[in-house]
Amino acid sequence: MATGKRQRIVVVGHGMVGHRFAQAAVERGLTETHDVLVIGEEPRAAYDRVALTSWFGAGSDALSLLPGGEYDDPRVRLVLDSVVTEVDRAARTVTVVSPPSAAEDLLANPGAVTVHEYDVLVLATGAAPFVPPVEGRGKDGCFVYRTIEDLEAIQAASATATSGVVIGGGLLGLEAANALVQLGLQTHVVEMAPRLMPVQLDDAAGVTLVRHVERLGVTVHTGVVTEEIVGGSSVSGLRMRQAGTEEGAPTGVVDAQVVVFSAGIRPRDALARECDLPVAPRGGVLVDEQCRTADPHVFAIGECAAPGGTMYGLVAPGYAMAEVVVDALLDGPGTFTGADMSTKLKLLGVDVASFGDAFATTDGALELTYADAVTGVYKKLVVSEDGTRLLGGILVGDASAYGILRPMVSSGLALPANPEQLILPVGSGAGVQIGMPDEAQVCSCNDVTKADILHAVSEQGCETVADVKQCTRAGSTCGSCVATVKNIIEDHFASVGKVVDKGLCEHFRLTRQELFDVVAVHGYRRFDDIVAAHGTGRGCDVCKPAIASILASQTSTHILEPATAELQDTNDKYLGNIQRNGTYSVVPRIPGGEITPDKLIVIGEVARDYGLYTKITGGQRIDLFGARMEQLPAIWRRLVDAGFESGHAYGKSLRTVKSCVGSTWCRFGVQDSVGLAIALELRYRGLRSPHKLKGGVSGCARECAEARGKDFGVIATEKGWNLYVGGNGGATPAHARLLAGDLDTATLVSYLDRFLMYYVRTADRLQRTSTWIEQLEGGLDRVREVVVDDSLGLGAELEAEMARHVGGYEDEWRATLEDPTKLERFVTFVNAPDTPDPSIAFTTERDQIQPIAPALIPVGAPA
Amino acid sequence: MSTVAVSLTPVCAVEAVPLEGGVAALVDGSAVAVFRTFDGSLFALSNVDPFSGASVLSRGIVGSRGDAPVVSSPMYKQAFDLRTGACLDDAAVRVASYGVTVVDGVVHVGSARPAGEVA
């Protein structure tokens, strides 16, 4: 295969399932032998449709499953905004229509048509919302709820509306209702069945849910059918009557300017029908257990497929189908034989879960229920006739037991003698510990079993939820199993008697965060006191710089004061970056990359006079290399006298805030990005942090400052600034994600103050913002809660700490030059201060100096 | 055991070597790093980091590993036992160690010791 001709896979559809297929193809090595072309119809790459409602708060970027818009593996190509119009199975080609690339082409050419050959075709076209044939459904103000574009349209229409109706009280309908509530509309939900979520919930659960939902101001109408959407060209209301009554029976009208249809979905199987592939009677491309259609070259996965005639409207079965097809193409044995349709979600802030045989349809099944009308909790267990096995259940208002209960159903684990304890509130003497069998499926979205997680922990070196997420994908889709994953990890380590050692080094069992708190609480200022009280030994190159950084963050005292000077890494100790031959680099701060000609000349003159190598850095400033340690004070004297200050290139601290030229000069700019970048760089300069920090500010959406590749990135909008966090370049690049949008400058600065201080306080040593966010329980949402919503009430405290830092800032180099005791260390040989280090020598290359490698001295021999 | 004539080179006052820090000195044309540990003990090693060849060991962080007083190279962070010069991260590597004495408050560095002899 490896030497044969490369096979071509065409994937139609770039939704969650199409994306998963491409991901799996890369991860499992299918792209070694196959090229993959993915054709997506929407203007953006796959996004998390399950979390669609969070778009209103978080924006499109936060939902994206492929933020860069392309796959790292060049053998997977993604084409967006394009529609497959035809499949020719005989010729094995697909016809694709893409929009013209420029507006002026539109008249001459309505769209570019291309034809692509395939060896394997994968249909992942998903499903479309079902709009029932109701009179008036075409009026302006009628919407469906499926894509980001749908949400944009609903948002726009809601600006002038006061009330809205959602037709359909199922899962998606309640999500849509949540959206309308968030948009400030008086919201109604109309459901034909006698209760909400009729597929998942029984009557009692439905009643409990209605109580929760109505408390949020949503009016629920169950057991009614929509007769007509009323209004002129635009919607003005909805006429309905009791379900089961004849036409002409009395009706009622609800006022509404927005109507959202959410009455189910239908597989998008038109392409398959047109090329005569068999489809199921109720829709969906018929496929076998390997998701192969009647044509062996064509597969169908996700909501457009109907394995065995049944369509599955959840993401987890779709993911499973994607994996099965990749497996089949690798000649693997995987099959899809049906899916667990269990559901757990938070709807309008209410936990709802339904799993297994929720309606007790099994012969002889018994029901155990617990209901508390005051707190709005309803729990039901369905157990086998002999009371030994759990068959299914429903949870409303408190679904915390879901993580334990659902795996019990799939594994057939024996119930404890008193199964009611499983659903009684914790305070009532309950809290039985249930051992989960290894084969129990923990993450149903990604089909990860307990055994998979244990394997990751015991064999693959995973120690945290974040590690396991990355390794197994458990908890990376809906997140409902994260608590269970965490328990499994902790139980495992407890069972093998291993305390997960998060201690800094052999001298401290504490984490950096714990040390930070210890220092803050006790007010320590000296390493000796800290190691005496909380550590052992005399420290090392790990804990000493970490404590130096913590002390610097908390006290703003000069890092070369006697108490801390010897704790500093050599870069901090000499306020320069050590280079391979023992010389140092000199990097004066050039805030935002803006510099006057006079200052530029000074840098040139200093470099020339001291024979330094000069290079422009990626952070929009100038690096001067080759300074001998004893030359540093004289060089910096010149620079400080000319108005420069330390650029902190040597510290785990803020480096630069990069900017584009912004609205001052650029004809596209909408805000003054240079001005803001300078203000931010000057505000956070000198802030010691767990890792180096970089920022960026772009003056418009073109993003020329590459701000999203920074720990904090600010991008101008027409209304203000969008704030992104957690980006970096380096070996593991990360794109910053949106924390908050359209901020005024004052709010932006207060969020940034909080974000940075929260990071400085709680991150591990050398943990960059991206990995810090990833390992926080709750991830970016958690950061948003703390920084934007101030859920911990820490906002003022974090801002005050930053204010103390800003107020206490001094230029480290100026202060050093003014203090003779600090200058004492800048001597190469203590007994021969005028002798330069003979091991440092230079050659010339491209008209500048370059170090000559010091000859390696024979090991074990005196020099 | 070594009765070879030992030359002692005066280097600096004891206080000029920072506690848990180091300084570099020129001894017979060679760069020597002198360290002072927390308990006031003095040690001297070749200043040359054998992994990079740069003359920088005196600028490393002084601390402990287990019972051993160590300096970690500022270049690539390997730890060296201050008593012997042995690299604790690579058993094949050792830097030269030197005898140190204090005469009238002044640190004197002797000649390089043969491998294996402990301070």
UniProtKB/TrEMBL annotation, chain A:
Pinpoint the FAD/NAD(P)-binding domain residues.
8-307
Domain Nitrite/Sulfite reductase ferredoxin-like positions = 579-640
User: Which intervals hold domain Nitrite/sulphite reductase 4Fe-4S?
Assistant: 651-787
User: Ranges for the BFD-like [2Fe-2S]-binding domain?
Assistant: 442-490
Instruction: Provide the cofactor list for this protein.
Output: siroheme; [2Fe-2S] cluster; FAD; [4Fe-4S] cluster
Q: In which pathway does it act?
A: Nitrogen metabolism; nitrate reduction (assimilation)
Heme keyword on record: yes
The record's SUPFAM superfamilies line, in alphabetical order, gives:
FAD/NAD(P)-binding domain, Nitrite and sulphite reductase 4Fe-4S domain-like, Nitrite/Sulfite reductase N-terminal domain-like
Key words, A-Z: 2Fe-2S, 4Fe-4S, FAD, Flavoprotein, Heme, Iron, Iron-sulfur, Metal-binding, Nitrate assimilation, Oxidoreductase, Thioether bond
**InterPro entries listed in its UniProt record:** BFD-like_2Fe2S-bd_dom, BFD-like_2Fe2S-bd_dom_sf, FAD/NAD-bd_sf, FAD/NAD-binding_dom, FAD/NAD-linked_Rdtase_dimer_sf, NasD-like, NiRdtase/SiRdtase_haem-b_fer, Nit/Sulf_reduc_fer-like_dom_sf
> Could you tell me what reaction this enzyme catalyses?
hydrogen sulfide + 6 oxidized [2Fe-2S]-[ferredoxin] + 3 H2O = sulfite + 6 reduced [2Fe-2S]-[ferredoxin] + 7 H(+)
- What Enzyme Commission number(s) does the record list for this chain? 1.8.7.1
Q: Where is the NADH-rubredoxin oxidoreductase C-terminal domain?
A: 342-409
UniProt similarity note: Belongs to the nitrite and sulfite reductase 4Fe-4S domain family.
Function summary: Catalyzes the reduction of sulfite to sulfide, a step in the biosynthesis of sulfur-containing amino acids and cofactors.
Q: What is this protein called?
A: assimilatory sulfite reductase (ferredoxin)
**Which species does the entry assign this protein to?**
Nocardioides pinisoli
UniProtKB/TrEMBL annotation, chain B:
Q: Which InterPro entries match?
A: NirD, Rieske-like_NirD, Rieske_2Fe-2S, Rieske_2Fe-2S_sf
Query: What domain of life is recorded for the organism?
Result: Bacteria
Q: What Pfam family does this protein match (any one)?
A: Rieske_2
Q: Does the keyword Nucleotide-binding apply?
A: no
Q: Where is the Rieske domain?
A: 8-109
Keywords for the protein's UniProt record, in alphabetical order: 2Fe-2S, Iron, Iron-sulfur, Metal-binding, Nitrate assimilation, Oxidoreductase
Q: Output this protein's name.
A: Nitrite reductase small subunit NirD
- Please name the source species: Nocardioides pinisoli
Q: Which gene encodes it?
A: nirD
